Design the sequence.
């Protein structure tokens, strides 16, 4: 069934007649949709424009990491953020296929036949390190061979580097875990962000005169601690002091809590995007609420 978010179409498990139309399709995991991924997406868009094709992207959701390597670190971007990044790149259709044991065990050749059976691909665009099929046996060379066999074009995007360091999702994860938001942001091409629906908290922030919003996103999160950033709400953008962790003073469940500077209103139940600019300190267990409030006030001053 096809759904739409903004001007982008979302097709799940090949359930749409639009797949009969000729397409230029970008393939990859696109975890974080960093500047290397953006180059893949831009090439798919340009090829589609020149050849009168539909620019599309093919992804698995949930991310194959959850089935193949569940102990590896978190994925960088949630579904909402990923779709919005695709739309910014000019992609018109997002093809989402569920990743399961059947897909996992397909040979690389069978996987391409499976794709061609369901999508009218005229051109495929991938990154230099793209792999596919059982045990990642398919690579860009084999994809080009299959492209000649089945008569679809293949373009491979070379790696993108910043200051001599190749951009990759794994490096961005390491920077996020260490709290180095500046390096992570350079590789992402934007500030790292988390989008989720605001849930009702325990009201403790309002009682101490520092109201906060509470988010429990379904993705892993960067290093615990306090960050300065921005909150994008239905009322506009606000500077924010953001905390990730359990609030050890009170022993809360792991989540994100943010104070929106100069904001007054109710956001419970609405979707908010929190953008992280810089890490300012780790989580601290304070002796009492007064000491906690003193440190929070200082954090807010640093984030203004």
Sequence:
């Amino acid at each position: 069934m096809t759904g739409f978010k903004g001007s982008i179409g979302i097709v799940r498990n090949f359930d749409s007649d639009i797949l009969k139309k000729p397409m230029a399709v970008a393939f990859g995991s696109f975890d974080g949709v960093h500047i290397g991924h953006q180059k893949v997406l831009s090439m798919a868009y340009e090829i589609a424009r020149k050849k009168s094709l539909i620019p599309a992207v093919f992804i698995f959701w949930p991310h194959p990491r959850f089935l193949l390597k569940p102990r590896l670190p978190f994925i960088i971007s949630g579904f909402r953020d990923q779709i919005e990044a695709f739309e910014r790149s000019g992609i018109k259709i997002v093809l989402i296929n569920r990743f399961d044991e059947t897909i996992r065990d397909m040979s690389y050749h069978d996987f391409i036949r499976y794709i061609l059976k369901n999508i009218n691909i005229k051109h495929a665009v991938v990154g230099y390190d793209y792999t596919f099929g059982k045990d990642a046996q398919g690579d860009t060379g084999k994809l080009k061979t299959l492209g000649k066999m089945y008569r679809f074009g293949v373009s491979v995007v070379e790696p993108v580097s910043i200051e001599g360091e190749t951009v990759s999702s794994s490096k961005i994860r390491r920077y996020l875990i260490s709290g180095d938001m500046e390096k992570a942001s350079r590789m992402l091409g934007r500030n790292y962000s988390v989008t989720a629906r605001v849930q009702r908290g325990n009201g403790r922030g309002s009682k101490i005169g520092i109201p906060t919003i509470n988010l429990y996103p379904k993705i892993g999160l960067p290093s615990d601690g306090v960050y300065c950033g921005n909150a994008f709400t239905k009322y506009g953008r606000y500077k924010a002091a953001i905390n990730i962790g359990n609030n050890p003073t009170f022993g809360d469940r792991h989540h994100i809590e943010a104070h929106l500077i100069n904001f007054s209103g109710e956001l419970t139940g609405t979707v908010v995007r929190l953008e992280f600019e810089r890490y300012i300190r780790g989580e601290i267990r304070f002796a009492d609420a007064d000491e906690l409030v003193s440190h929070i006030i200082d954090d807010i001053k640093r984030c203004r």
